[in-house]
Amino acid sequence: MIDFEQFKTKAEVIKYLKATKDISCQTTAQAEKYLRAHLPKESYYQDKIIKHIRELIPSSFVWKAAAGPYSRQGIPDICAVVNGRYYGFEVKRPFIGVLSKIQERTILQIRAAGGKAYVVTYPDEVTRILQKEIGGTP
């Protein structure tokens, strides 16, 4: 299995896939199709981030936002209260995840109301965001 975290950009991973002999990706379109089929689902990244926040700051209150017909659309996937501050983390798959318009608007509304909201993929991004909360420097 490929460790997709080693790549910084979509172009890097596409180049890698096209150069790898055991993967049949001769074109960019084939590489993008392979990427969509083989990247872990968003829930995989969500679970990693929830566990990471709980380990990083045990006093935090963290939950996965419920999605369904009776819930508000656009709420970030992961919500957390850390030291009295609200954080929303919209989790996207690397290289292919795209925010919807409602997600963009909701993030702006959260920020306007004084909360913090971010688009993330990996736990290390969350660590950087929460650095001030864990006693480090931002």
Explained architecture:
- The chain is of the alpha+beta class.
- The protein has two domains: 35 residues, no CATH class; 88 residues, 3-Layer(aba) Sandwich (Trna Endonuclease, Chain: A, domain 1), CATH 3.40.1350.10.
- The chain contains five helices and four strands, in the order αααβββαβα.
- A four-stranded mixed sheet has the order 1-2-3-4, sandwiched between helices.
- Helix 1 crosses helix 2.
- The longest helix has 15 residues.
- It is globular.
- The mean pLDDT is 92.
- This is VRR-NUC domain protein.
- GO terms for molecular function: nucleic acid binding.
What distinguishing features does this structure have?
single chain; 138 residues; alpha+beta; Trna Endonuclease, Chain: A, domain 1; 5 helices; 40% helix; globular; nucleic acid binding; Restrct_endonuc-II-like; tRNA_endonuc-like_dom_sf
* CATH architecture type of the largest domain: 3-Layer(aba) Sandwich
Distance between the termini: 33 Å
The total of beta strands comes to: 4
Structural class: alpha+beta
Shape: globular
CATH fold group of the largest domain: Trna Endonuclease, Chain: A, domain 1
Summed up, the helix count is: 5
Instruction: Please summarize the sheet with the most strands.
Output: 4 strands, mixed
> Stretches where pLDDT falls below 50 for ≥5 residues?
none
The Cα radius of gyration reads 17 Å
Helix content: 25-40%
Protein name: VRR-NUC domain protein
GO molecular function, one term: nucleic acid binding
